[in-house]
Amino acid sequence: MPTSLREYTSPLLVEPNGVERLTDLFVNRESEAPGHIAFQVPSGTDAAGATTWSDVTTKEFFTSARALARHFIAAGIKPGDAISIMGPTRYEWVLADIAALWSGAIVVPIYDTSAPSQVKAIVEDAGITRAVAGTAQQAESLAGALGGADRVWTMERTPGYECVSDLVKREPESPVSDADLESARTSRMLEDIATIVYTSGTTSDPKGVQLTHGNFVAQLQNIGVSHGEVLNERGSTILFLPLSHVLARGVQLMCLALGMRVAHLSDTSRIIPTFTEIRPTFVMVVPRVLEKILNAVAAQADKKHVGRLWKDARETAVRIGMIGEGFHERERPKLPLRLAAKRALYERLFYRTIRRLLGGNIHYILCGGAKLHPSLALAFRGFGIPIIEGYGLTETTAPIAANRPGDLTAGSVGVPVPGTTIRISEEGEVLAKGPGVSPGYRNAEHTAAAYSDGFLRTGDLGSLDSSGRLTLSGRSKDVIVTSGGKTIEPAGWEGAVEQHPSVAYAVAVGDDRPYLTALLIQQSEDGDNGGDDIEIIENPKLIAEILPYLENANLDVSRTERIKKFALVKANLADPNLVTPSLKLRRTVFLEKAKAAIEELYEKAPKPTIHEIVKREIAEKASELKAKTSGKAHKDASSND
């Protein structure tokens, strides 16, 4: 058996070396490359309806950020005050973020899907004094929580509010000198709080995570070195995940510090055309984005009546990806003759098209936010688009573990990022300590419950192999304990079933029950999100398509871990109370809403198990085949007569 470790530390690669706050990294970057293109900003559309993009240099951006910071200071913002930003992913979000940091303020992002009651709670808890809003509705929500429209600026021109784009073009009414601005910026040190991020929470109420300037500096400097092949000034990216999420924001700040060109996209329906316009070298996604890309390819293949060919092409890509494990992504290991021939065929039919959909210039994809199924990572590697999977939390300033270029392992989230120690507790929980780990929450009680012996308790279950690679197996709070006392981690089974394109989420159920059942939430592609209730739906054709996935998932686990019954359900996946901004299901909320559906699964009247249904279908098909064969034999015999 392979050796497993209880603890592994990756050495720190870069010390701060004179960097005393996060904004020092930006001062250095502006000095090094003032004319480098830092952003591409939408400026209109051409005759064909494609978006046109304008370049913004490093110097132009930081000049605008300082101009906005002067307005913040003139409005009464002092070092240590809290400013909130609530809006879609766009250039002005970043402008407000950097301006706030330059003025010495603490930035408090608020998800743009947050309800007014949530906005009010965050404003009160963080002591927010001013805010920047993305839309008129968000401006009203923030103005209501802050007590007036005069305390809110907007990212786009909105009646009754001042727009940040207009502010940067003029001096504030109360002049702010260069010395005053620099004094505000340099008032912050590495140990000072740079941001408070309220976790989206899949199993609990949001908590205010405090991240310091030192947390960000350590992550940006060290990951910039460990992943320099991906993140560098020769590269470009499109950011479309919410900047309120620490992963997207961390990548944005890293791009600013390293010089990587960035374009923002708030309308995710335009992802594919934007890839073609920008042609990025690197993108960051959550697993569901990859699944949607392949589902779209599958749908097109079905329309062209080549669905079976696509299925084989995807399976072939997985086999190619498996052979490529252990090789650098730029290397092409020798394939068996038959597999090489298939790759050549499918390269022309499918693989090249997938790369073109992503702009044709992608070197790597970073995937995080949720567990990525190994077959998906292997398939994309087979397509010629290697995926870097990582793992982290808000409390760890994004990643605490990540695969590195030249050492990608499907199914693993990689080794600890530089300077980080990962420990596996006796209960199998992943613990973390390092320069990126938050000093704690706003609430001291939350901090006391989350830290043990200097390590953050992540709430995730995992294991370390002999090389220090971390593999996750689920959430500790998602563990199921049956009435027979059997402890079960359902994440593996759920992930296997979620590979079916029509299954948005698979949720195993069985706490205090004699056996396991599951609710499969149907993926909605037609915009019909359903109501607030969790409804069981009857769709025999779709259920028949999903059955093989269920059977295969059952075969990969022990007998007591197998799902005996299941139901297909409809849920409102557009509800932010049910699904987090990073597209993770809030399991506790879902199970509460699904009580009636769960009780129906455990009715006394016996129902056939998945295995019995599959056996019955196989028997019926065998019977049909036998009848056809018998009929043909009878016909042939009659002909001979």
Automatic annotation (TrEMBL):
Start and end residues of each AMP-dependent synthetase/ligase domain: 51-441
Record carries keyword tRNA-binding: no
Transmembrane segments: none
UniProt xrefs under CDD domains: VL_LC_FACS_like
A GO molecular-function descriptor: ligase activity
SUPFAM superfamilies: Acetyl-CoA synthetase-like
UniProt keyword terms in alphabetical order: ATP-binding, Ligase, Nucleotide-binding
InterPro entries xref list: AMP-binding_CS, AMP-dep_synth/lig_dom, ANL_N_sf
Signal peptide: none
Lineage top rank: taxon: Bacteria
PANTHER family per the UniProt record, alphabetical: AMP-BINDING DOMAIN-CONTAINING PROTEIN-RELATED, LONG-CHAIN-FATTY-ACID--COA LIGASE
Protein name: Long-chain fatty acid--CoA ligase
Originating organism: Dermabacter vaginalis
